[in-house]
Amino acid sequence: MRYPLFEAVRERFQRACGYCGVTEITVGGELTLDHYRPRAAGGSDDWDNLVYACVRCNQYKGDFWPDSTDLADGRRILHPGVDDIAGHVVTDENTGYLHGLTPTGVFHIALLRLNRSQLVTHRLAQRLQRVFEEKIRLLEQQNAELQKTIAAQERYLALLTAQATGRRPSA
Ligand SMILES: [Zn+2]
Question: Which pLDDT score, from 0 to 100, does residue 3 have?
Fold first, then answer.
């Protein structure tokens, strides 16, 4: 049975896994609803307790829920809709690996196995895609500038030709 909030949560996370970022398109199907606080640990079906998550992240997260000792040591999972992920986790653009900036970030990456090889490859492919898109944008911009220069030169050429032949330019 689909959860009543399935569509709303799906849109909230833009059809991508809240934990690792893979999309429905890259996975080839709908993802799952994760209970941030597992039902086994008393988690509810409330909006803020639901995270759109891929099957793997959901599986690796399992029924983990921190006890007071875990919390004291920073061992908890980051909530992608609530926590400031960038304050805990950084991506190395060159290698595609995630690194923890805090004990919580380190734990989050390890438990969800966010450096699994497929995700690292996925991040590198995405980076390459961004580089291509930026290069295309720059080339399009340069082409537009060059076309303006060509148009200006053509007008100048027409003017000079008209003067040299004693005719008035047609336009
Ligand atoms: Zn995931």
Answer: 81
In whole angstroms, give the CA distance from residue 109 to residue 93: 16
How many other CB atoms sit within 10 Å of the CB of residue 24?
16
SS3 of 18, please? coil
**What local confidence, expressed as pLDDT, does residue 166 receive?**
82
Quote the ligand 1 centre to 105 CA distance (angstroms): 16
DSSP state, residue 20: T
Q: For residue 62, how far is the Cα from the chain centroid?
A: 24
Does the predicted TM-score (pTM) go above 0.85? no
Bridging pattern class, strands 32-35 and 89-91: unpaired
- Note whether 133 and 122 are within 8 A (CB): no
Residue 80 CA, ligand 1 centroid: distance in Å: 11
CATH topology of domain 6-115: DNA Binding (I), subunit A (1.10.30)
